[in-house]
Automatic annotation (TrEMBL):
PANTHER family with a match to the protein in the record: TRANSLATION INITIATION FACTOR 5A FAMILY MEMBER (PTHR11673)
Name this polypeptide is given: Eukaryotic translation initiation factor 5A
CDD domains on file: S1_eIF5A
Polar residues compositional bias, start-end: 8-21
UniProt GO BP: positive regulation of translational elongation; positive regulation of translational termination
Domain of life: Eukaryota
Organism: Paramecium sonneborni
Keywords: Hypusine, Protein biosynthesis
Domain Translation initiation factor 5A C-terminal positions: 84-156
Function according to Swiss-Prot or TrEMBL: Translation factor that promotes translation elongation and termination, particularly upon ribosome stalling at specific amino acid sequence contexts. Binds between the exit (E) and peptidyl (P) site of the ribosome and promotes rescue of stalled ribosome: specifically required for efficient translation of polyproline-containing peptides as well as other motifs that stall the ribosome. Acts as ribosome quality control (RQC) cofactor by joining the RQC complex to facilitate peptidyl transfer during CAT tailing step.
GO MF terms held by the record: ribosome binding; RNA binding; translation elongation factor activity
Residue ranges, annotated region (Disordered): 1-21
Post-translational modification: eIF-5A seems to be the only eukaryotic protein to have a hypusine residue which is a post-translational modification of a lysine by the addition of a butylamino group.
């Protein structure tokens, strides 16, 4: 047996972007995968079991990246995918002319792969970030992450420590 045979690929073994949860336990304000999109739940309703069927949960949610509305239904006893969603704050260092931002991590490293949101729904947020940054204010930028994607979702003025 040669050494080459014992080489394994290194990767994200066992890691996933989602976990499963019973459709009957989903709540408004939580997150769920609807039609393959990570969504924030805006409405959940359950119907009673019929003569031959299961109780069903009807779920309505908005895509957390595009704000598009999606709907789906599933028996309350069945499992449904729920995305792992994280929110992290970074210090804003610079806003580039092309819309990319330079953010500072807590560990001192920089993050330069995020662009200001470009959807119509985010116009006010982008304007607020640009105006406050141009006014010389120190800003903390909130970034939502799910399914390998990231989006700037908020900003606030940094408090002096």
């Amino acid at each position: 047996m040669s050494d080459d045979e014992n080489q394994f690929e290194q990767g994200n073994a066992g890691s996933s972007h989602t976990y499963t949860e019973s459709a009957g336990s989903l709540k408004k304000g939580g997150y769920v995968m609807l039609k393959g999109h990570p969504c924030k739940i805006t409405d959940v309703s359950t119907s009673k079991a019929g003569k031959h069927g299961h109780a069903k949960a009807s779920i309505v949610g908005k895509d957390i990246f595009t704000n598009k509305t999606y709907e789906d239904s599933a028996p309350t006893s069945h499992n449904i995918d729920v995305p792992f969603v994280t929110k992290k704050e970074y210090t804003l260092m610079d806003v580039q002319g092309d819309g990319f931002v330079i953010l500072l991590n807590e560990d001192g490293s920089t993050k330069e792969d995020l662009k200001l949101p470009e959807t119509e729904d985010d116009f006010k947020l982008v304007q607020e970030i640009r105006d406050q940054f141009d006014a010389g204010k120190d800003l903390l930028i909130s970034v939502l992450s799910a399914m390998g994607e990231e989006k700037i979702v908020g900003c606030r003025e940094a408090q002096d420590k």
